[in-house]
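ASSEMBLY PREDICTION REQUEST
Request ID: AP-0331
Submitted by: J.K., bench scientist
Number of chains: four
Total residues: 222
Priority: normal
Notes: Please return the full assembly, not individual chains.
Input sequences:
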Amino acid sequence: MNRKQLAKYEARARVIKAMAHPARLIILDELAEHGERCVCELTELVGTDMSTVSRHLSQLKHAGLVADEKRGTMVFYRLRVKCLMSFFSCVEDVLEQNAAEHRELVALEIA
Amino acid sequence: MNRKQLAKYEARARVIKAMAHPARLIILDELAEHGERCVCELTELVGTDMSTVSRHLSQLKHAGLVADEKRGTMVFYRLRVKCLMSFFSCVEDVLEQNAAEHRELVALEIA
DNA sequence: CGGATATTTGCCACTTTAGCCACGTTTGCA
DNA sequence: TGCAAACGTGGCTAAAGTGGCAAATATCCG
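STATUS: Completed
Returned structure:
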C-alpha cells in the first residue's frame, strides 16, 4: 500500500466517519427530506444540547456533506450531495440481509 | 424522535461505523476486487499487526458486511453485500466536490 | 444602548477505539 | 507426538469521540 493509495482510503474514511453517528444520520435524513433546517429545529429533532448538535453539524460541514448559510441570527443547513439516498439504501440492504439471516438462524433453532 | 426511529438510525450508524476506518476500507476494496482473501494476505496488505486486522475483520463481520469461512488453518473472508461499489462512488462524489470547491477558492484568492 | 435569541466555542469528564504484545487454540504435517 | 503456522483474544496504553455546561459572539429589536 503506497502513500497515495493510503491517502485515498483515509479521505474516504473521513467522509464515512462523518456519517457514522445516529444524530448525524438523523440530521442528514431530515435535510434530505426538508431541504433546509436551522440549528434550533435540528436540535429539537435530535433531542440533545444545541451545542452538541452544532458540533455534529460542524463535522458534517467539514466533511463536505452539508453547507450552511446564515440569515439573521439563524444558520440554515442543507445537503451538499445528492447521492446520500442510494448510500443509505445500501446500508438498509445490509440491515435487511442481517435480519434475514437472523430469522433463518432462529428457524433452524426451532426445527 | 420515537424509540423505534432512533433504533433505526442507531442500526444504520453501526453499519456505517464499521466502514469508517482506512484499514477496513482497504479490506473491503480488496475483497470487492478479489472475491476472497485470507487474514494473512489482508494483514500484508494493510500493514499492521495480524491481531489488529483480525479485529477489523471481526467488526466487519459483526456488521454483516463480510462472511468468513475456515479452510484448514486459514480463514477466508469475502463480501456479503453487492452495493458497496455504489456506496463508495457516492463517497468519491463528495471528495470530488470538495476538491472542486477547494480549487475554486484557490482561484478566487489568486484573482 | 441594553436585552433577548441563535449559534459557536472552551473546557472537562467519560466512553470508545486502535494498536501492539503475549498467549491460547486449532489445524496440518513430519 | 510434537512442532509450526494461522487466527483470535486478553490486557494494556494512547488517542479520539461525545455530551453537557458555561461563556463568547453575532444579530435583531425595543
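REVIEWER COMMENTS: Helices of chain A lie at 3-19, 22-34, 39-46, 50-62, 84-110.
SIGN-OFF: pending second reviewer
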